[in-house]
UniProtKB/TrEMBL annotation:
Cross-referenced SUPFAM superfamilies: 4Fe-4S ferredoxins
Gene Ontology MF term list: 4 iron, 4 sulfur cluster binding; iron ion binding; NADH dehydrogenase (quinone) (non-electrogenic) activity; quinone binding
Protein name (Swiss-Prot/TrEMBL): NADH-quinone oxidoreductase subunit I
Biased composition (Basic and acidic residues): 152-162
Origin superkingdom: Bacteria
Gene that this sequence comes from: nuoI
Organism of this sequence: Actinomadura rudentiformis
Free-text cofactor note: Binds 2 [4Fe-4S] clusters per subunit.
Regions of compositional bias (Low complexity) in chain numbering: 182-196
Function: NDH-1 shuttles electrons from NADH, via FMN and iron-sulfur (Fe-S) centers, to quinones in the respiratory chain. The immediate electron acceptor for the enzyme in this species is believed to be ubiquinone. Couples the redox reaction to proton translocation (for every two electrons transferred, four hydrogen ions are translocated across the cytoplasmic membrane), and thus conserves the redox energy in a proton gradient.
């Protein structure tokens, strides 16, 4: 059976009318900012104070876009102990022109020095400007949202559970032998046959 003349036009107009009466979902960015999910991956922030220059993030990055330079510093001996050396961070940079926002560096960092920030407005005309040095990465820390609360009834993190257990443990008087499994306090007396 042939189609009625003008049916295609009527169908098209019906679609137009239906769309015209629906509420628009277009955001007038940049006048209206988007509502981003709390864990949006916008830019990577560096908490420089936590970084021990272990290089794990740079080694794990699949794009090789994390650049780290450091030097060793010797700290003078205190109280008759040995002099200690520590790593000092000279350069920490991420090239966001190469980064693929996989988040592996953040997962790999054992010292909580890297975080996701939802900020995404850092487009540049010059590609070289997309390499953010440590001062700029540190500034992004101010835009990192606080961690989300745990689900009700979720297990507490093991660090919190260990601290609470230690706080409720009865205090030992000096000279009293340790109970089995109790950790030795630094400088505390050794028990006969104890391993420490
Ligand atoms: S998010 Fe992925 S690609 Fe980007 S710096 Fe981290 S590890 Fe590298
Ligand atoms: S993994 Fe963390 S602590 Fe190690 S170099 Fe990277 S940011 Fe610093």
């Amino acid at each position: 059976m042939g189609r009625l003349p003008g049916s295609g036009l009527a169908k098209g107009l019906a679609v137009t009318l239906r769309t015209m009466t629906r509420r628009s979902i277009t955001r007038q960015y940049p006048e209206v900012q988007p509502d981003l999910a709390p864990r949006s991956r916008g830019v990577i922030a560096l908490l420089e104070e936590n970084c021990t220059v272990c290089m794990l993030c740079a080694r794990e990055c699949p794009d090789w876009c994390i650049y780290i330079d450091s030097h060793k510093e010797t700290l003078p001996a205190e109280g008759g102990g040995r002099a200690r050396t520590r790593n000092v961070l000279d350069r920490f940079a991420i090239d966001f022109a190469l980064c693929m926002y996989c988040g592996i560096c953040i997962e790999a960092c054992p010292f909580d020095a890297l975080f996701w920030s939802p900020e995404f407005e850092y487009a540049e005309y010059d590609i070289n400007e997309l390499t953010h040095e440590k001062d700029r990465l540190r500034e992004w820390m101010w835009t990192v949202p606080p961690p989300q609360a745990h689900d009700p009834g979720a297990e507490p993190p093991k660090e919190v559970a260990a601290a609470e257990k230690a706080a409720t443990r009865p205090k030992r008087t000096p000279g009293e032998p340790r109970t089995p499994g109790e950790p030795r306090t630094p400088g505390g007396p050794r028990t006969p046959g104890g391993s420490t």
